[in-house]
Design brief:
It is a single chain. The chain has three helices and two strands. It is of the alpha+beta class. The chain has a two-stranded antiparallel ribbon.
């Protein structure tokens, strides 16, 4: 788990993800490089279906890997 993470919530029905983090531990400048991943995830999740679910889960894993590197 990413140390600055306060809470993560996901909804498999809607394909949404909420990530609450401690901004004091991770300045917004450090999150800027993740914007392409967030945008791709947003685009894919907006068309959520059983067909897109594996791609969404892969993007979530990718996002998690990026967050680990910010530690």
């Amino acid at each position: 788990r990413f140390p600055a993470t306060k809470h993560v919530d996901s909804n498999a029905v809607t394909g949404s993800i909420v990530l609450e983090y401690n901004a004091a531990q991770v300045p917004i400048e450090k999150l800027q490089p993740l914007l392409p991943v967030f945008e791709k995830l947003e685009k894919t999740a907006s068309n959520y279906s059983e067909k897109t679910k594996p791609t969404i889960l892969t993007l979530v894993d990718e996002l998690e890997e990026h967050l680990k590197k910010l530690q």
